[in-house]
Amino acid sequence: MLKPFFKMSALSPLAALALMSAPTLADEEPLWEFGIGAGGITFPAYRGSDERSNWMLPVPYIMYRGEVLKADRDGLRGSFFDSDRIDLHVSAGGSIPVDSSDVEVREGMPDLRPTLEIGPALDIDVWRSRDRKLQVDLRIPVRYAVTVESSPHSAGWQLTPRIALDVFDPVGLQGWKLSVLAGPVYGSKQQHAYFYSVEDRYSTPSRSAYDAKGGYAGWQVLSSFSKRFPKFWIGGFVRYDSLQGAVFDNSPLLASSNYVAAGFGFAWIVAESSRKVRMEE
Fold first, then answer.
1. How far apart are alpha carbons 119 and 93 in whole angstroms?
2. What CATH class does 6-278 carry?
3. Strand partners, 73
4. Average pLDDT of the chain?
5. How far apart are CA 49 and CA 72, in angstroms?
6. What whole-number percentage of the chain has pLDDT above 70?
7. What pLDDT, on the 0 to 100 scale, is given for residue 122?
8. Domain extents for the chain?
9. What is the three-class DSSP state of 18?
10. Nearest to 113 by CA among 139, 89, 145, 141
11. Sequence-ordered list of residues with C-beta below 8 angstroms from that of 85, at least 6 positions apart, any chain
């Protein structure tokens, strides 16, 4: 069985909203589908910020189920790994830009550029029910981040091992999919420095200089749900984030150790292929 080598991280808030499309357990599906809709999302400016961002944004719905190239709830990926239980691919994620003038604890500091994160990821199928309506996976992505600007700079490494539970037709709700992912977050010194260090020149009476260390960065749990109807799709997610005990918990830029991010979306299916392809059960 062919397996993916590229997918977007479902733990990025924006990716979580855009990529929650729920596959069904049917034998055949259209080769491609396209739709467009809208969604809302609320999340902190960065992990540990007490300033929130609230966005309304378009939600694309794109499905392509080719033998080599696929685009679905796991993002865009190419299939190359032949295994029924182990999936080795490239994981991608990122962070949004932050205007420091909008974040009180960062006032006078440089803005945070958006970052792109990319790196290898290993998914292990730990257990599945006979009807495949319940599945438990271990997901281990390691991603290297760079800033998105004219002269990109390194923003360090991040490791986010997760236990993932996928439930199809939960409590008898036909066609719905519920997913729950949970696990710790680890980051390199450079990753944490990008968000939590304060250089001497930016220190103030209320914001002391701080040199962030690498290591444990808290934990996350994310729950998402979605359903594909004949002509439209709906979905949503909630993510709880705890930074208690993180190696940078003394940073003056860490304003909140616990927060919730959430989002919802819907999309109309405007076109689909007449050609059907057989899907794995």
1. 9
2. mainly beta
3. none
4. 85
5. 31
6. 83
7. 87
8. 6-278
9. helix
10. 145
11. 124, 125
